[in-house]
Write a structure and sequence with these properties.
The chain is 7% helix and 46% strand. It is built from two helices and 16 strands. It has helices spanning 14-17, 164-171, and strands spanning 2-5, 10-13, 27-33, 38-43, 47-52, 58-61, 64-66, 72-76, 80-86, 91-96, 99-104, 109-112, 128-131, 137-140, 144-149, 154-159. It is globular, with a radius of gyration of 19 Å.
Length: 177
């Protein structure tokens, strides 16, 4: 992984720029925060690191997941896939194999994303997410595509067909008489 120096307009290896050893190997997602010049790095197995690009300080975010009451949950935030900004500048949404997580940037704590419309949904293995122009959150899991209207408090699931790849391939085969 390289660091881009805005002043010289050149890339430098992070290991040469920062004195600390980086604790991540397979980077899956980056999120840049202009103020205070942080680069958030989510890796596949090593969790989240926050790099202060002004000072070079690297901070590992604990992988413990907390309940709303502040108690530690046994699971860990392994296999992180993607980070996007959520709820203004206070937190990041994180798609992970263990579900949809929220990182409180002020307290550096992870917790499961909770929304009344998602209580009955199976949110393990969230592989991707994005917001659309209306502010709805779209999630893809191993089982379905989910659209969450955060304002209205509703969610709609679009399940994937079983063996859809096999079905699709079979339907495109030529038929001979």
């Amino acid at each position: 992984m390289n660091y881009y120096d805005k002043h010289t307009k050149r890339f430098f290896p992070l290991k040469k720029v920062y004195s600390q050893e980086l604790s991540f190997k397979i980077v899956k997602s980056l999120y840049y925060e202009r103020e205070p010049d942080y680069l958030w790095v989510a890796s596949l197995y090593q969790g989240i690191n926050r790099i202060n690009l002004s000072t070079g300080h690297i901070e590992s975010i604990p992988e413990n997941i907390y309940t709303p009451e502040g108690k530690t949950v046994v699971d860990r935030a392994y296999n992180l896939v993607k980070m996007i900004e959520f709820a203004g500048h206070d937190s990041l949404l994180i798609a992970a194999k263990g579900g949809l997580l929220v990182l409180d940037k002020k307290h550096l704590r992870l917790h499961h994303f909770e929304h009344p419309s998602l209580a009955a949904k199976h949110l393990s293995q969230v592989w991707d997410m994005t917001f659309d122009k209306d502010g709805d959150l779209w999630l893809t899991t191993s089982f379905d595509l989910i659209r969450v209207n955060l304002k209205a408090g509703t969610a709609h699931s679009y399940p994937f067909l079983p063996n859809s790849a096999e079905h699709s391939a079979a339907s495109h085969q030529p038929h001979f008489m």
